[in-house]
Amino acid sequence: MITARAAASFDPLGRSVAAARAFVRDTLQGWGFADIVDDAVVLTSELVTNAVVHAGTKAEVLCLRSGDGVRVEIADRYPERELPLQHPGERPYADPDRENGRGLMLCAALATRWGVEYTATHKHVWFRLDLPDRPVGTRSAGPVVPDRLLPLADSRVRVAVLQIDASDSISAWNGDAEHVFGYPAEKVLGRPLAELAAWPQTPGTGTGIAEALRLSRWEGSYGIRGADGRVIPVYASHLRVRDAHGEPSIVCLLVHDDERALLQTPVRVASTDSLQLTEPRPADPFEVFIGSPAPDDLDGLLQRTVERARDMLDADSAFLLLATDDETELEVRATTGLPSTRQRFARVPVEAGTNRYGSARMPAVHDDLAAVPGAVPLLEATGMRSVITVPLKVEGRLTGSLGVAAENPGRYSNAEALRLQFAADRIALAVESARLGELERLRRGSLSFLVEASDLLAGTLDRDQTLALMAQMTVPTLATWCAVYTIADQSSDPYLSYVLHEDEERIDGLKALLSRVSPPEPVREAGARPWPATAQAVGGETVVLPLLARNRVIGMLTLGKPSEEHFRQEILELAEDLSRRAALALDNARLYSERTAISRSLQRSLLPPGSPAIPGMEVEVIYRAAGEGNEVGGDFYDVFPIRDGAYGFAIGDVCGTGPEAAAVTGLARHALRLLAREGLGGPAVLERLNAAILDEGARSRFLTLLYGELHPQPDGGALMKVVCAGHPLPLRLRPDGRVTPAADPQPLLGVIDDLDLYEQTLTLDPGDVLLCVTDGVTERREGTRMLGDDGLTEVLTTCTGLTAGAVAARVLRAVERFAAEPASDDMAILAFRVPEQRMGD
Question: What InterPro entries would the database entry show (predicted)?
């Protein structure tokens, strides 16, 4: 009987094979079928590879659980492929040296039962794996081992039990959790687990805490910040469950990391029957020293190593350091019996003295460190007196150093040093292999991190947003806190521009502390350098990286960690790469801001300073320049006083848009004012402007222009003289709704030398409206439709009785609603209206 099912589909991509493996593994582990997970994953991998890689089709995976086993079905959409049958003289199902049919050969070898089913559109390959028979009540068992090889644990074992609700907040906290971490239940209930967890933040490695809490089952190491502020390393097992109402939650079991054997899932071992039938294999010296199973991660392996070394020589403490690539320094990676969190990732030189005992390349025994101060820098002020250090070497190359120490002098002799060296030789290759694997993951993660950072930084030209991105990318991935100093120019002092801390409540306090410290000196040399000035004010380790762009120091990126932590060299190298990208993005944002400010200042100088108040007239102007960031384009307008009782107005359109058109706009507007105030009439003003445009030569552009003079009349009307040089005709709206052109078309400017222009006169009566627009209004398009002169006339007929401002606004609204796309041309609207006489005026 089927008791549970799970299904997933995978696209025909190479990464789908790994995704299918993970799906089957998580599903079977969630069902408690750990004994058959490995076989199911192998078979799924081969069959999904056949579907998505070789057949190039989508694969559908279905897992069916029953009481005594599981059935897995893989379906694809390539039914015409044949089942590889056995022919005379051939091996059954497939040749292991060929790709074709290997999945079916594995099914025959591993599955309890299997088969292939064809339909018109699908091919199903299924296999069944039965659970192994065990004694009643036994789920898994390990072999009998000597007591001395059993994992270590405290005499009083404490297992902290937490329950996390659907919002990732702590809903249950047992007494052992209170004892281990120091928090009473009332202090943590309702708080997110992320506030207490010191989750690994190395870029590109590990799973985030939010993702881990969504998995059906998770096991691994992280830290919990205790009530005293220290980070307590723990080994955890998470299981996602649901209650009777279907609400999910996560049950978390946590123990001290050095007691991980209490929770760590045992590796799959052969049955007791098979153990009895096979000859016992010789003990592996590495497994004898490290214990089996060996940790599968570098940090776990190093921590297990120092614990075993300490126990082997009955020491008070032990430590392990790894060499840098150039073998000049050693980096502290694991300690026990020492303030490990304070010393982690600290560096000491390989050659600490002139004799062999001062070099990490040779074994050394120190009877009393008090007699040779500084011989082992790591142990200063720790109370340790006697120490053994031995090198870790691979193919003659120094890869690390292993040491044990005791509080009493004279504890160790050369015999103990030989035992420790023998252990170091057994583990050196495994440690180096794990280190190289971690380094490769770090490098891949670093590349991914830098690609994402570059995309984010390239996506903005806003200075403040660039500063925020710089800080947010470094905290908490690279550092606990970050401060960005900027330098406006070479004569300016560094200015604290942005501060970020992983604990938001500490940002203001950190900013106040940094404000009281002199900023770091700007240095052109690339690379991270320590900043000791913050040691007393802020505490912890602080490094400064210069922000170099275009051969100039434009600021400093400051990274800090608390007093118990140190920066890894790989993190500093990654921060240096990030600082180069961030500096260029910050300088680009600065240049863009400067150019934008200059452009806007120049553009504003081309706009009229303001429209004058004309007695007895309503005047309204609406102007829209095309293009992002443009305030002035090829369309322009102006309303200005000529002399007492006379006002000039103009609305024009220069060929094109943007800065080139704006340059001719400035020439035309200023020339019109100057010529009009010289007392010239409309035709003469435009003829001289035409000559000035033609004098520009290759830079000249043709121009359409409506120019006029307005004379308010004592009876309440207005006399207008207009010249329309190739421009859309002005429209006159009467109070009864009639709309008529108010001028005749004449030649445009900037094309021919000889212009014969004439002036037309009209009188606006009370209630009349004169509407002047550029072709950005009349040529507004939506597909093949265009607003045109007729459309503008229809809009204007609905404007009777409206003020000049209301008329201009209605026209603009009609233009915007005519098409969904933003306008691609400049647009100017100029409306005049003679108010109607009110009774009693």
Answer: Bact_Sigma-Reg, GAF, GAF-like_dom_sf, HATPase_C_sf, HATPase_dom, PAS, PAS-like_dom_sf, PAS_fold
Q: How far apart are CA 714 and CA 329, in angstroms?
A: 96
| Ramachandran region, residue 32 (left: φ > 0; alpha: ψ -120 to 50; beta: rest) | left
- Write out pLDDT tens, residues 611-662: 788 988 999 999 887 766 555 667 888 999 998 889 999 999 888 666 677 7
Strand order in the sheet with 646-654: 635-643, 646-654, 703-712, 718-725, 760-764
**Could you give the CA distance from residue 803 to residue 265 in angstroms, rounded to a whole number?**
82
Contact residues for 729 (Cβ-Cβ < 8 A; gap 6+):
741, 742, 743, 744, 745, 789
User: Rounded to an integer, what is the distance from CA 840 to the centroid of its chain?
Assistant: 71
pLDDT (tens digit per residue) in 309-343: 888 888 888 899 888 777 778 888 888 887 644 46
Q: Is 540 exposed, middle or buried (0-12, 13-18, 19+ CB in 10 A)?
A: middle
**Are 836 and 733 within 8 A, CB to CB?**
no
Q: Give the residue from 675, 587, 602 showing the smallest Cα distance to 638.
A: 675
DSSP output for 633-663: -SEEEEEEEEETTEEEEEEEEESS-HHHHHH
Q: Which residues of 403-427 are buried (b: 16+ CB within 10 A; e: fewer)?
A: bbbbeeeebbeeebbebbbebbbbb
Q: Which residue has the tokens 């281990």?
A: 180
pTM score of the predicted model: 0.47
Angle at 666 between CA 664 and CA 671, to 5 degrees: 95
Report how far residue 24's alpha carbon sits from residue 63's, in angstroms, rounded to the nearest whole number.
8
Nearest-CA neighbor of 814 among 829, 836, 792? Answer: 792
Asked if residue 578 lies in contact with residue 450, where contact means CB atoms within 8 angstroms, the answer is yes
Is-contact 405 306, C-beta < 8 A? Answer: no
Residues 6+ apart with CB under 8 A from 306: 318, 319, 320, 334, 335, 336, 402
SS3 380: coil
- Are 593 and 621 a contacting pair, CB within 8 Å? no
- Say if strands 785-786 and 781-782 run parallel, antiparallel, or are unpaired: antiparallel
Residues written for the chain: 841
- CA dist 444 and 435 (Å) reads 14
φ/ψ region of 204 (left if φ > 0, alpha if ψ in -120 to 50, else beta) reads: left
Picking from 582, 572, 474, 467, the residue whose alpha carbon sits closest to that of residue 529 is 572
The enclosing H or E element of 218 equals: strand 217-225
Helical packing angle, 658-676 and 682-694, nearest 10°: 140
Torsion, Cα of 434, 436, 438, 439 (10° steps): 160
CA distance 643 to 651: 20
Q: Are 753 and 803 in contact (CB under 8 A)?
A: no
Identify the CA nearest to 782 among candidates 822, 724, 812: 822
What does the pLDDT read at residue 58? 85
- Distance, in Å, from the CA atom of 546 to the CA atom of 527, rounded to the nearest integer, reads 7
What tens digit of pLDDT does each residue of 527-569 get?
Answer: 888 887 776 667 778 889 999 888 888 899 999 887 667 787 7
Please identify which residue in the block is written with the tokens 């001062």.
358
Measured CA to CA, the distance from residue 194 to residue 225 in angstroms comes to 10
Q: Return phi, psi of residue 389, to 5°.
A: -130, 135
Cβ proximity of 290 and 304 under 8 Å: yes
User: H or E stretch including 406?
Assistant: strand 397-406
438 sits in which H/E element: helix 414-458
